[in-house]
Fold this sequence. Notes:
This protein has helices spanning 9-43, 52-75, 83-117, 142-152, and strands spanning 47-51, 121-122, 128-130, 133-139. The chain has 156 residues and is an alpha+beta fold.
Amino acid sequence: MSESERVPLVMKIFFPLFMMLLTLAAAYLFFSELVSNLRDMSSLPESVSFSKGSYYACGAGFAVGVFTFFSVSEFWFSVVIKGRLAKRLMRIAVGGAIVMVVFPQVMHFYMGRFIEENTYIVCEEASSQWLHAKTIVYVKDVGVCQEMAASFGATE
């Protein structure tokens, strides 16, 4: 590596740590939402919340995890990944990007069917959306929806 191509020490240390933090955060967000949805599906509470954003995090976690592996191996251990391993890791990263697009839609469809079968209704007042991250709140009773909307400060 020539003098002009050297990576600053701060970047060698903090970039891989930041990428690891993002990977762990995505995994935590995904698994906590998945466990919450599975618990809701088994216990049938008065309200069920479904967040598409956490399912986007699943695919993003795969992709960021691969780039974390690349950055750690290169910055910390000075090992450049090449050949078949690099191809496999890049396939995982591309697969993660595909999962990030497809998986939330599949889970939303599956959750929608579950909701219909168990006579829940969408509570628009308690649901929210930010860009593509949509949180949908389903309730069994309109009264529960009105209570939730009042607690969020929404007006009808």
